[in-house]
Write a sequence for this structure.
């Protein structure tokens, strides 16, 4: 029995996962039996969490749809600006929501996301199973440089970072996931990810350095770990950074 063949075309950033000769056009895919389209897509290197719409011969299908000989598939990434309301997307709600879990190599990215007010979990002792379980249980978007991690069945939401530099990674996440309008700078604890709330100065006088006690009146405290925050000498620099990160120009 001869092997079957289908034709795949991947769009936009999904091409980042493909070999050069398979990018930007229809490419043959040879297979035996009737694998699901999800298995066929991932066998070509594309994690299922990066996919939001699959058309087989022009008809929207789910991940479990069996692949047939001669089929032509169009595979699209998550749509952030294109209105596809008339099509059947793979998930009833948007794939990416601003609640994240960062893998063990992305501690600096997690800190930057917290600075912008995004709920971003991070622990340097998590293994792949821990990360996948947290993302599944809390419906978090997994941020990682490990493509294999995004292929775990438990992971439903995720994004593969193309950049390796933390400064570029935060810009990539904000741009690719369209997070500018959702940012709320200075509302999360950098240490533990807890939310910050206002605290009266008289309640924390004994915890403040003399100069801070003299020069500042407004303070915030983490509701989880109790860490204190105020507008120190670095605040203006951070504000300039935020304006740069969140600018649409």
């Amino acid at each position: 029995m001869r092997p079957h063949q289908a034709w795949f075309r991947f769009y936009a950033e999904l091409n980042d996962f493909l070999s050069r000769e398979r990018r930007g056009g229809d490419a043959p895919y040879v297979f035996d039996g009737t694998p699901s389209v999800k298995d066929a897509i991932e066998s070509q290197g594309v994690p299922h969490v990066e996919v939001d719409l699959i058309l087989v011969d022009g008809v929207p299908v789910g991940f479990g749809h069996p692949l047939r000989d001669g089929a032509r598939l169009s595979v699209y990434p998550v749509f952030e600006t294109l209105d596809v309301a008339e099509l059947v997307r793979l998930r009833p709600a948007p794939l990416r929501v601003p609640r994240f879990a960062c893998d063990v190599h992305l501690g600096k990215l997690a800190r930057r996301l917290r600075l912008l007010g995004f709920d971003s979990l991070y622990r340097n002792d998590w293994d792949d199973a821990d990360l996948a379980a947290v993302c599944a249980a809390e419906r978090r978007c997994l941020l990682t440089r490990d493509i294999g991690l995004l292929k775990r069945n438990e992971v439903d939401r995720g994004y593969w970072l193309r950049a390796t530099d933390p400064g570029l990674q935060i810009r990539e996440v904000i741009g690719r996931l369209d997070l500018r309008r959702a940012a709320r700078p200075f509302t999360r604890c950098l240490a533990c990810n807890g939310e910050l709330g206002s605290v009266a100065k008289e309640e924390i006088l004994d915890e403040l350095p003399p100069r801070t006690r003299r020069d500042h009146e407004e303070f915030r405290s983490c509701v989880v770990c109790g860490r204190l925050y105020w507008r120190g000498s670095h605040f203006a620099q951070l504000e300039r950074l935020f304006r740069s990160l969140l600018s649409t120009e």
